[in-house]
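Example record used in the benchmark description.
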Amino acid sequence: MLKKNKKWILPAILIVGFGLNLAYIFKIPPFRDNDAGIQIQTFRVAQPQNTKPIQTPLINTSKSVYESYNSLMKEGNTLNSKGRFAFAINSYRKAANTMPGSIDPVMKIGTIYLTQKDPAKARETFEEVLHMGSNDFEAKLNIGRTYLMEGNIGEASKSFEQLDPKEEIVAYYEGIIAIYLGEYEKGKTLLATINTDAKLKGKAQGFLNAFAEFSKFEGGQISHLKTLIAKALISAEENTMATQLLSDVIKSKKDYRDAWILLGYAYLNNNNASDASQALEEAKKLDPAKAETLFFLGLSYFAENKIDNAIVHLEAAIQKGFEPKIQAHQKLAELYFLKKDYEKSAKAYETVLGINSGNVDYFVRPIWIYIEKLNNPKAALELAKLALKAHPNSAMAYNLLGWANIVNKDYKSAKQNLDKALALAPSMSAIYLNFGQLYEEMEYPLTAKDYYKKAFTLDKNTTSIATTAAEKYNKLEKKTYQANSFNR
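Model output (structure tokens):
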């Protein structure tokens, strides 16, 4: 018999899958210096007559094809690393057009679509690679992965069967498909052959551990085994397969609380918030006090833009002792921000810092709120001082303190701290933006424009810093133009 109140599923899945998957899907902080709460917009420059506003630089047509290709690939890689996927795809596509026949940029585009959970576009892109005459193993493998992402097990199997079975990655996918289909011995045999690739071996071991766990329960029910396998599928980021398997489990055992929770979690990972909230509401009916259920419900309602419902459930999850509690407070801070309840948002961020101040980027958002939304420069300054105390060798900490000095009208200290930040990180665009603000406050518009231009050049098309720098530059340029027109 399956024992009640088992604690084997949820703690494990929280540890294995929680940080990676939910951080990506719901954009859980750390809060980066490239996003202080303002979304970057398409950059358009105001253009008064007789002025020369900043222009986004074009590719130098005098470059060789090879140089242009490398420049575009480098640009795409930078944008990709910053999560600016649409811009990255655009750069990679330009690179592909610059050097026709090169599969690298097309493979990069396909990988982005996989990451973004768009299997149809990913498959189309990898098929483009094959149509270019390439016999690329990775492209063929990824086509199989797109079918798995869609839950099309038959087509996935056909794709993997065309590849060399001696390759460990092929054995892995054939193994998990066999286990999904109930061919347990075949699947275990295939997964046991994986020894070279440590990451792949770890994923395979997750499935083998599911069988080892199940063997501890004499006379265990098949629904128990399938739920353990689903947990391993979620950990391996095969969420569609997990939802299909868990749906079968629930058909035969509608009161299986942990199966409902895992089903909701898998739907969250697949960006299917509506189905996630429905599954988690079923879990909540079975156990209203389960902290994990309440937390995931909060996230699912957040994804559906049901802000008040999300707040209620996240606060309830904290009260019920949800761990890691820092995640719940982070999401509450974002929710309060969306409600424009900036006081509660700032306090929630400070709660996060009280739990973990080990990442200096955690200080960015609350300082930004105190400066831009609450007009509380003193609170911003105190928080910036704490940031420097916790991170005495951090360029960002000095930058934040310099920023807080500016809004507190302490220009001498602002320059000293920004100078220290610049010495530590000469290419950090945020520092140049704050230098621009410093000199604008001190009424040195020409110097301010130089710093704004530098901030934009370092950061163009990648973050809100570029947008803010361009807006401030153009505002000063417009003032200069109007002043010159008035004096004529």
